[in-house]
Automatic annotation (TrEMBL):
This is YCII-related domain-containing protein. Residues 74-184 form the YCII-related domain. Gene3D superfamilies: Dimeric alpha+beta barrel. InterPro entries: Dimeric_a/b-barrel, YCII. Belongs to the YciI family. PANTHER family: BLL7171 PROTEIN, BLL7171 PROTEIN-RELATED.
Length: 187
């Protein structure tokens, strides 16, 4: 991702229509956290005020074409849980075409980074490391009433937007959707 870093003097306030710029930088980073770290290193902010904006290519243009600014979004993981043996037998159970259509609509909105349905819980394998010894067990990590059935990885402006998308996931009618912010790892 590319970010535009705009640095203003410390006395800048919202009342200024056009405060003077102290510095400008184009920052390439994989996420906002890395962009902030690079901005701190590159711009030597001291007491200045910095604004970071993600640069988003307009449709079909790529970064060589025109770009627009977009508020910086955050990643959210929507974990879809349901009772596997009842998922397709309840009156409100979604059919696959409805689930596919919803996933396509979220993808078309530009908010979906990834989404997948999972194979039955019986196909799971659990790995544990205890005292330097690896233990591999067939089956899920824990016996629960509801099992993880799939996920959506979203790029949303805030939690409210992620919750709105999660509420529309068809399987939420017969199960639940856990929405969690993603913590970026520095790798």
């Amino acid at each position: 991702m590319k970010y535009l870093g705009l640095v203003y003097p410390p006395e800048s306030t919202a009342l200024h229509l056009a405060p003077p710029l102290v510095a400008v930088a184009l920052i390439a980073a994989r996420d906002l956290n890395q962009a902030v770290q690079r901005a701190l290193a590159l711009l030597r902010l001291k007491n200045n005020i910095a604004v970071l904006r993600r640069i988003v290519p307009t449709a079909g243009q790529g970064f060589a074409g025109n770009t627009i600014n977009e508020e910086i979004a955050m990643k959210y993981l929507c974990l879809v849980y349901s009772e596997e043996d009842k998922l397709h037998s309840m009156p409100d159970s979604p059919e696959d075409p409805e689930c596919q259509a919803y996933a396509e609509s979220v993808a078309a909105s530009g908010r979906m980074l990834a989404a997948e349905a999972l194979k039955p819980v019986s196909s799971a394998t659990t790995v544990r490391m205890r005292g330097g010894v690896v233990s591999i067990t067939d089956g899920p990590f824990a016996e629960t009433k509801e099992q993880l059935a799939g996920f959506y990885l979203l790029d949303a402006q805030n939690l409210d937007e992620a919750l709105e998308i999660a509420a529309g996931i068809p399987a939420a009618r017969v199960g639940s959707v856990e929405v969690r912010p993603v913590r970026q790892l520095e790798v």
